[in-house]
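Render this sequence as a predicted structure.
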Amino acid sequence: MKTDVTDKDLFVCIGKVVGAFGLRGGLKVHPYTQSAELFESGASLTIKRFGTDERKFCVTRAQGYKNIVRLWMEGVDDREGAEALSGAKIYIPRSCLPETDPDTWYWCDLIGLDVYTTAGGRIGHVDSIIETGANDVLVVMDEGRETLVPAIPSVVMEIDADAGIIRVDLPEGL
């Protein structure tokens, strides 16, 4: 039985290949995680581009640089091979992630959840999350309309990932 890396119960997307780096197969990766050890030398990663089969790679070297990670992997030896992976997403088995503390979630578990006000009105679904330094911000989309919701305890009242919902008490003006 073949597994599908897009199955959120089994795999977690930890980044996206945004381009090639250098002439020897280096990849520029936009990480979706703060855990640099997920990209360390020896790590096993699964890479999948939309419409293609997934491929497994072993990291031979990783280097943080500004807001990206530069990766070199076995089997990707030249710029052409690296460019062929541009746009691909990088996955690891969910079992490789440490358990979260109570009332703590991985971003991937929040993306896609429906967001409702405490009064029951639907705002939309979590499309992405922005890290601001002070606090994370949920980017909630509904039919092209974007609402930015600060992910702070005074605003986010409840997260029920099993039910697929987040309840928020929006401040005036949002």
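Summary. The helical segments are 79-83, 107-110. The domain at 107-168 is CATH 2.30.30.240 (SH3 type barrels.).
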